[in-house]
Structure formats: C-alpha cells, structure tokens
Amino acid sequence: AKVHFTDFEGATQVIEATTGDSVMETAVRNGVEGIVGECGGSLSCATCHVFVAAQDFEALEPMEEMEDEMLYGTAVDREENSRLSCQIKLCAEQEIHVTTPETQV
Ligand code: FES
C-alpha cells in the first residue's frame, strides 16, 4: 500500500505502507508530521484527523458512529472528507491520498 501525505502547506511525501497498518500507524512509524495519534488508535483522541482525497474517500468503508462523533472534537474543523486516520486500515494494493491539518492539538 502507498500513502500520499500532503501537509497543509502543500508538500507531499509518498510512504510505502505495511499491509494491515492504519494510515495513522504509517504516519507515526515514518515520522510524518501533522498526525499525532496520541491514543494509539483507540478512537479517543482525534489527533489523527486527515482530509481524504475525494476519489479515495468514496472507496473507504463508511465510518462508525463513534468515529463520526470524535470528528467533532478535532483541532481543525472537520470537512466533508474528514476521517480519523487510525480507522483507515490499508489493504495490499491500496493507494490513498490524504492531507493533514495545520494542527492536531
Ligand atoms: Fe486517537 Fe485516531 S489515534 S483517535
């Protein structure tokens, strides 16, 4: 899997991700700035907020109610394409484009 991370200033890096990892884990493992993942993926911090590119957003499994609720607590306001990146688990052939918010705290 590949994750394209674009920061709020428009700089992009492409990371080769391990299948089964989440987008948050991929970011933290590779030192990608803009994603904190304070709670380790247990849906209790909302510091893993990302904006998902439209075509990729459509392809994701719909979010659970808990994730939807947590998205109201993000540091930068949620948008239509907001997700918590710890809830996006990567499949082998998956390629996804996300933009990180200016801050997570
Ligand atoms: Fe805490 Fe995603 S890492 S909610």
UniProtKB/TrEMBL annotation:
Keyword Protein transport appears in the UniProt entry:
no
Specify one Pfam family. Fer2
Sorted UniProt keywords:
2Fe-2S, Iron, Iron-sulfur, Metal-binding
Q: Which InterPro entries match?
A: 2Fe-2S_ferredoxin-like_sf (IPR036010), 2Fe-2S_ferredoxin-type (IPR001041), Adrenodoxin-like (IPR001055), Adrenodoxin_Fe-S_BS (IPR018298), Beta-grasp_dom_sf (IPR012675)
According to its UniProt record, which cofactors does this protein need?
[2Fe-2S] cluster
SUPFAM superfamilies per UniProt:
2Fe-2S ferredoxin-like
Homology family: Belongs to the adrenodoxin/putidaredoxin family.
Q: What protein name applies here?
A: Ferredoxin
In which organism is this protein found?
Glutamicibacter ardleyensis
